[in-house]
């Protein structure tokens, strides 16, 4: 029993090491060009199989298949192929947007697949039945883990991972004919757009007071730098900032409770009534309105 455990442990260690080496070699080959990748794929497998064959010679006393040269090489190829196939499936099942951030699990996983293949060649029907059962359980658990990792996060998980303060998530009711579209959120601010066919988009941004580092005068009006800027009082605590340079636009701002709410309009300001409506109906965004955020990148 002791030598069997030692044998499987040795196979696992070799499988882990080979999985790590192959993974790094393939990554380097991909970045080095087709010739380097072809060299890795041609040279790596024979060397790995030879290493397993050398390990298999120590198991001749209790693994009958390894007592003959043909059986030994067949055993080595099968064990190597199982570990490689398991590692490949692990990589294929990993969510691509995670960037293999759990790649450290790849190495022991490849070793486990190699050890299970080696265990299947041990004598005894009970041993093979147990090995088959463990393999099935591993496959089921792996499939569930891959499925679970591929599921989109909940809204609260996304907000927490990105450090978003819900106090920033404020929107105004869409003006008549407009549709609200959430653009993005971070620890620094929140953005949304209001769209209507045939009309320029209105962009709402919510930031903490002081986040905008541009120079301003005593009224909070940006200091001109290469373009003409005019600031006027729009009433109800709003400030209208007009940029008259090469990219004409207007910003309707409202400072409230330590936040700066800004609606940006392109052109001469035909959408000012709609912008005023947005700022006059500000409220916390609902979970339904924020649902699109979970499709955006999330920190890990």
Description:
By secondary structure, the chain is an alpha+beta fold. It has 2 domains: 149 residues, no CATH class; 137 residues, Protein Transport Mog1p, Chain A (3-Layer(aba) Sandwich). Helix content is 47%, strand content 19%. It has 8 helices and 9 strands. The strands form 2 sheets. It has a 7-stranded antiparallel sheet, with helices on one face. It has a two-stranded antiparallel sheet with strand order 1-9. Helix 3 runs antiparallel to helix 4. The longest helix is centred in the N-terminal third of the chain and has 31 residues. The protein is elongated, with a radius of gyration of 31 Å.
Short description:
The chain is of the alpha+beta class. It contains eight helices and nine strands. The strands form two sheets. Strands 2-3-4-8-7-6-5 form a seven-stranded antiparallel sheet, covered by helices on one side.
Treating each run of at least 4 consecutive H or I residues as one helix, how many helices?
8
> Beta-strand percentage?
15-25%
Low-confidence stretches: none
Largest sheet: 7 strands, antiparallel
State the helicity in percent bands.
Answer: 40-55%
Number of separate strands: 9
Mean pLDDT: 89
N-to-C terminal Cα separation, in Å?
43 Å
Shape: elongated
**Order of helices and strands, N to C?**
HHHHHHEEEEEEEEHEH
Number of domains: 2
Strand line-up across the major sheet: 2-3-4-8-7-6-5
Radius of gyration: 31 Å
| Secondary structure category | alpha+beta
């Amino acid at each position: 029993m002791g030598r069997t455990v030692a044998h499987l442990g040795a196979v696992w260690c070799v499988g882990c090491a080979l999985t790590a080496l192959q993974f790094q070699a393939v990554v380097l080959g991909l970045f080095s060009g087709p010739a380097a990748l072809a060299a890795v794929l041609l040279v790596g497998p024979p060397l790995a199989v030879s290493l397993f064959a050398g390990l298999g010679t120590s198991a001749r006393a209790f693994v009958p298949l390894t007592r003959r040269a043909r059986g030994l090489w067949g055993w080595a190829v099968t064990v190597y192929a199982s570990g490689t196939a398991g590692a490949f499936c692990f990589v294929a099942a990993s969510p691509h947007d995670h960037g293999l951030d759990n790649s450290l699990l790849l190495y022991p996983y490849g070793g486990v697949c190699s050890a299970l293949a080696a265990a299947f060649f041990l004598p005894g029907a009970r041993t093979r039945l147990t090995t088959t059962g463990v393999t099935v359980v591993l496959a089921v658990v792996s499939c569930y883990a891959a499925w679970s990792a591929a599921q989109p996060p909940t809204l609260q998980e996304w907000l927490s991972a990105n450090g978003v303060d819900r106090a920033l998530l404020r929107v105004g009711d869409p003006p008549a004919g407009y549709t609200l579209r959430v653009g993005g959120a971070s620890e620094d601010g929140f953005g949304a757009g209001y769209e209507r066919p045939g009309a320029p988009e209105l962009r709402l941004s919510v930031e903490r007071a002081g986040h905008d580092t541009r120079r301003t005068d005593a009224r909070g009006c940006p200091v001109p730098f290469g373009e003409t800027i005019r600031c006027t009082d729009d009433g109800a605590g709003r400030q209208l900032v007009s940029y008259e340079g090469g990219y004409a636009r207007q910003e309707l701002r409202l400072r409230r409770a330590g936040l700066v709410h800004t609606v940006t309009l392109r052109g001469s300001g035909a959408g000012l009534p709609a912008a005023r409506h947005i700022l006059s109906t500000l409220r916390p965004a609902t979970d339904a309105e924020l649902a699109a955020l979970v499709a955006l990148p999330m920190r890990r």
